[in-house]
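Q: How would the structure tokens look for this protein?
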Amino acid sequence: MLNKQFLIAILLFALSHQIVAQKLFFDALTCDAQTNPTAIESSQPSFSWVVKASGFNRSQSAYQILVASSIDKLNEKEADLWNSNKVTSSKSVYVKYGGKELKPTQKYYWKVKIWDEKGQVSNWSSLASFRMD
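A: Here is the predicted structure in token form.
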């Protein structure tokens, strides 16, 4: 009886750690190395993010970025400026904008999600913004 309880405890422990190990979340989002900048001069800003992941040997295998002119349009169907779609890449620093032309003095909104080494997708990051100079 003790052996059965011990095995169940080990199984529950392993299962709980496997579930925790799959969690991915974002710690920092930057545009041209700034948090929510208000005067971007580049016509092709770059995006960076820091991913926090529980567990060992975790890595990013893909990402998707959305950029929109309003918070309401910041979804996969309505991102009016750029939807990178899923890009197979471990790159998370200085990912160049690849969407429609950005206009001066306009504020833009963006977010990112990633896939891990096993193909598990994260939730979308929190909302970030930038304004063109």
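The helical segments are 2-21.

Confidence is low (pLDDT under 50) at residues 9-21.

Upvote if useful.
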